[in-house]
Amino acid sequence: MSTVLATLVVDDKHTGGCIRDQVKQILVEFESWRSKNVFVTDNAANMKLAFRDLRWIGCACHNLNLVLSHGLTPSSDEAAADPCLPHEVSQLISCCKELTTLAKRTRINHLLHKTLKQ
Predict the structure, then answer these.
(1) I need a surface site. Which of 1, 19, 35, 53 has the fewest CB within 10 A?
(2) pTM exceeding the 0.70 threshold for the entire prediction
(3) Are 47 and 19 in contact, with CB atoms under 8 Å apart?
(4) Is 88 exposed, middle or buried (0-12, 13-18, 19+ CB in 10 A)?
(5) What is the pLDDT of residues 79-103, one digit of tens each?
(6) How many CB atoms are located within 10 Å of the residue 52 CB?
(7) Cα–chain-centroid distance for residue 84?
C-alpha cells in the first residue's frame, strides 16, 4: 500500500538540492522526517544526488520497465550491435497492440471486467 502525502508544481530546476528541499519540507510538515526514512526513486542523477547521504534505493519496477522497454524495442538498424528482437516476438506485440486498439475503438473494452492495456 502507498499513500500520497502531497503533489506540487515545482517551477525551479529539478536539481538534487531542490528535490531534497521539497521532499524534506513535505515530510517535516507531516512530522515524518526521520533519519531512518528510505527513499525509493528512479535512477536519475538528480534523484541520486538528492538522497545521496540518506537511505536511497532505485525502484525495481522502474528498472524492470527500462530493461523490458529496451529489450522489446525492435532495432531500426539491422546492422546494430544489439541483437534484434525476434520476428515472432515483434509480431506478437504488434498483434496485441492492434487487438487492444480494436477493442477500445469498438467499445468492446467496456464489456470486460478489467480494461485492456497495451
Answers:
(1) 1
(2) no
(3) yes
(4) exposed
(5) 454 456 677 777 888 898 899 999 8
(6) 10
(7) 24
